[in-house]
Amino acid sequence: MSHDKRTDADSRISRRRYVAGAGALATVAVAGCSDDPEGDAGIEDDGADDGATDDGTTDDGGEAEAGELEIVHWWTAGGEEDAYNALLDGFREEHPDVEIVDNPAPGGAGSAIDTVIQNRVLDGNPPSTFQIWPGQALTPYTDEGLLEDIGDSVWDDEMREAYLDDIVDLSQPGGDLVAVPINIHRLNNLFYNVEVLEEADVDATDIDDPQGVLDALEAVDENTDAVPMAHQTQAPWSTLQLFEAVFLGQRGTDDYLSFVEGDVESLEDEVRAALELLSEYADYYPEDAGSISWDQGNDRLIEGEAAFLHQGDWAAGQYEAADGFEFGEDWDMVPFPGSDGIYHSVIDSFVFPTNNPSPEATEQFLNYAGTVDAQERFNPIKGSIPPRTDVPTDDFGPFLSRQIDDFDASDTQPPTIAHGTAVVPAVQSELEEAFANFNDNLDIDTAYEAIRDAF
Ligand code: BGC
Fold first, then answer.
1. How many CB atoms lie within 10 A of CB 201?
2. Closest protein CA for atom 9 of ligand 1
3. Per residue in 198-254, pLDDT tens?
4. Is 109 a pocket residue for ligand 1 (Cβ < 6 Å)?
5. What is the pTM of this model?
6. Integer Cα distance of 24 and 29 in angstroms
7. What count of other Cβ atoms lies within 10 Å of the Cβ of residue 393?
8. How many A from CA of 314 to the centre of ligand 1?
9. What is the homologous superfamily of the domain 189-342+424-454 according to CATH?
């Protein structure tokens, strides 16, 4: 896709607004969020030999010396690490004098980062910067004034002009611009192994709705030895996001937004219907779903041992990193059935905590993260698309070019619960607990009540 086409398309999109997802929700104080949202069960070992322990702390010596740029993030799995390293390489080229202290808190979807970061920020001992979703996830920090306003220092006119308006909005939940988004992932993807589906005699493009997904899983189960759905239940976020996908596929964006605004009771039948179907999908997860991470599940799809996976397109970053696993020939994706015109968005950003150990280097890093160069290096490897509208996308490859077309053509780009843009962290962690229990017992009554009470 040409640079110009992307720019033209985006100037159209940039006038489109995200429908505000959760503006009416009460905000919470940081102190109220310091619980580990997932308990021990939520801490994932991604299997990576990255110097990180399984409890989310790091064993690499931890914090930086004064002046060093310490970055806390959770990009250690799949192709995530390659994308992060590409970002750092670009930064180092521009600022060779800055010493970077890489301090990962591994765990898919940030399942281990919260505790580390909240404690450090509250103690006045923050890292230079950390990975966080923009939108509601920022509010415990902005409510307490724990993030610097970078509206003048980083967000100059050139940058504001280049970013999608909706993404700028998500970066200022409390009024001040406090975050620099670097990517946009799509969440409502159904990835599949092409050969396994052929063997199962299933055509993914023929699946019309979430019920059809169940029929396809049954067909894979009957006709092949593969695991129908490479889903992980070790940490609850993947089931929460699958619930979001099923609900969006069944009900569409309007009902979904009513749900994230907390209007659960008037949607009781709809929520129960989504839970019912989800409980039937569970027959088709791997036997060891409770002890694998998302990328270990995805490895099975790559190996031809699994048919489908519902994940954000970070999963595509992992396919790109795998040898000889080609888009179109070996893997492909359809929008989660029923949610075609929806681009369910997940965004990552970096922030400038107050009491910063390295103000100058932090500002340099945030400035860099907001550039064309950073986003051109990072996104094609990560499996995401840039939030700036002027990034040349010629090297983004056929899959991401299709995602860009889908984004540009999408009717709505709703925020996500499992990845923090839509609801405040306190609500998110209640919902995660509901789905942790649901993973264990598949009890629809209990899950419905817990979901209702979460808001
Ligand atoms: C982040 C992605 C990441 C994924 C899995 C999401 O919450 O936004 O960048 O790849 O979690 O760890």
1. 11
2. 348
3. 999 999 999 999 999 999 999 999 999 999 999 999 999 999 999 999 999 999 999
4. yes
5. 0.88
6. 16
7. 21
8. 7
9. Periplasmic binding protein-like II (3.40.190.10)
